[in-house]
Amino acid sequence: MARTEASALLKGAGVELPESRTEDLVRRTEGWPAGLYLAALAMRDGSPAESFTFTGDDRLMGDYLRAEFLTRVSRSQATFLLRTSILDRMCGPLCDAVLSGKESVRVLEQLVSRNLLVVPIDRRGEWYRYHHLLRELLQAELQRGDPDLITELHSRAAAWHEANGLPEAAVDHAQVAGDAERVAGLVLDLMNPVWTSGRIDTVRRWMEWLEQWPSVRHYSAIAAHGALIFALLGRPSEAERWAAVAEGLPATGTLPDGSTMAGTLAYLRANLCRDGPEKMRHDSREAWEGLSPASPYRAAMLHAEGLSYALDGDLDHADAVFAHAYDLATGFGALPLAALTLAERFLLAAERDDWPAAESLSQHAVEIVEAGHYDGYWTSALVFAVAARAAAHRGQMQAARQYVKRAARLRPLLTYALPVVSVQALLELARAYLAVVDPAGACRVGAGPRNPAATA
């Protein structure tokens, strides 16, 4: 139902609302005329319109749903409705798993055919959901009737979703069931792809939920990876917090992919580089040995080892290790890291005054970033900074300025949490500013990340 029609219905029932409140009510009722009318009656009954929130277990709505819908179903169908109300969306096999039954497809088709507020959500008639108001009433009834059963229902739902390749839904149900072991195992695999998709708040919510069970398996690995995620996002205080959690737990055990916990913590230490290049090199080698051969993080450890040699001035050894890191990162599809290793090799080639090699490395690194749309990644700051320097070296000052701007936008990500590459990128950015005759910009790099995008 459109907003104008909803406004007319509400007005006819004696209620006038601002447009925003009407739109919210249409959303809550899904435009269902009976729902809108009952909401209007509830407001006329004394509920203040300004703060009114209409739910399925509202007295008027609940009485209507029970009288018009729940009394029309059999006892077995009522049980089906109650127990499957824990699900955001349903299909026959999922409902069978939750109910330990075999007839869910038939029951769903019957409910849909009788217009009992069960909504198909695909064209094949496989997936369904309940109208929001009906589901809210059913969930309230289930909670009042058998709250202990809810945990078991969510546990069954979590197992089905995990087995059927829907891990995020499995996490949601496992959390409600209090199954910390299942949550931790799932989150360990999910956290990196989820945060790279831009949903860092989801990852943080999972990690904070798991803080209730610090002894759960894999928790220290989750904290370690979380620390590095926050470091890459330019949030050093959160990175430090989770690094402390990881390092405060026993470094024992083996993760599902075969990596050791000791190797995982060494991976964290190598990236944080708190104790100089020699310790960084030791940690990266320990991590290399402890991480599973199938782990994409091994490429990052080759990068860290190469950095340790570069810091010690051993350019030849550093270049060989960076080349190996590039090959491994490319093989694993870790393309932002692959571009970063090319930028590292640019620095070594420029140090040798081998500008043909440096130009080729910079161009390739930029191509990877642009093809993958990695402009906002921490790893790309150094790529853009060296690209600016390369463009300035060949006299293309306009291109150099554009690369400077792109690198400067990433300035807030360059913090002490990941010190080596952050300092490299800052130094190269300052050099690039000087190359384009912008000494004020170079000064701003050292002064801190005060909206660098606006001043580049």
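(ticket continues) Second input and output from the same batch:
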Amino acid sequence: MIFEVSASLEAPVEIIGAKARGLVEMTRLGLPVPSAFVIPASACRSFLRDGSMPDGLDDAVARIAGAGTLVSVRSGAAVSMPGMMNTILNVSRARVREAVPAVFSSWNTPRAVTYRELHSIPHDLGTAVIVQAMVFGDRDQHSGTGVAFSRDPATGERALYGEVLFGRQGDAVVAGESETQPLHDLAVREPGMWEELGSALAALERHYRDACHVEFTFEAGRLWFLQVRPGGLVGRAAVRVAVDLVDEGLIDRRTAVARVSSRDLRLARALYISTTADLDVLARGIGASPGVAAGRIALTADHAVQMARSGPVVLVRPHTSPVDMHGLALAAGVVTSRGGPTSHAAVVARSMAKPAVVAATTLTVDPTSACVFAGSRVVPEGTPITIDGASGLIVLGSPAISEGAGDPHLARLKGWAASRSL
């Protein structure tokens, strides 16, 4: 069975996946979502078992895409697996039959298997596939793409946060290969769209009663939403959001206490590189996932796996992609010279509670020579470094580590948890 994405679609997330469920909810809220249909996860399991394809695929494509219209073909499992499976853009209508099996098959790629093992996701679920009419962020000067959070993913502060690229396609921001612009640049260049984006995120927060982030594309001045994910913040950010949502009347104290995990409580202990002593600063980037990590520089995912057998490593890359998953899994932290706080490296690091620094643009990472270059400095692979995923600081050696001041949001949450009158 194939499901059209519409406000009336009631299929549960276990059948149509989290991404399609999000499209349905945004459609119900009246947000602009390109027309789409979803092939359920059961079809993926059938394909992986015997190669069978779902009936009615050609008719479904014809309903959402007229002659000459291109579509995207994306994975959408019940549990979010960011970047772990294939996405195919700009697919013509004779080519959907080739793209869908490619996305189904990506369920069993090594990176996807590794991610599921790390997050205890069953291997037999399979993925739904979403086929959606394309919108083009590279159409003209009033087109682009971005990722927007309703609250700062590092701190939990209530403020729009994210990245945008003008004149680019929808996968460019999350790929982390391009130099992005702060989301607020949208307010300068397209103020009407900025207002629309803020209103949409506020509506999504009220609907989900949680912080949310969206992927969006704007084409010729018109805004389109491609994905929404509620929650996903960790550590101090998760604590602050839970407490603030109580103050804003969206959830009660009992819900706030239940929503914050033991991992979040552990990560809420703010560690940072002490600046009271002289530091041998190698570079500064953007803090993308809080915490401090120390280890030897590994310049490829394979090297990270090998080197981690004899001690902690920090994976240092120009940017990461899903094929780096095995190295990310074993690294204590990650640094990229390109990409921003919504790039693949940042999203995966936050999901695994690993410190990350991105956009360290003064670094040149050269795996061929097994060195990192920072101005006139040459730092060989294997050199010990320490990174601060809040401040974006990258230093050589093992500097002193300090603990930040107490968090008033954490203190309030602990008080609620200890109270018998939630």
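Agent notes: The mean pLDDT is 92. The radius of gyration is 22 Å. Closing as not reproducible unless the customer responds.
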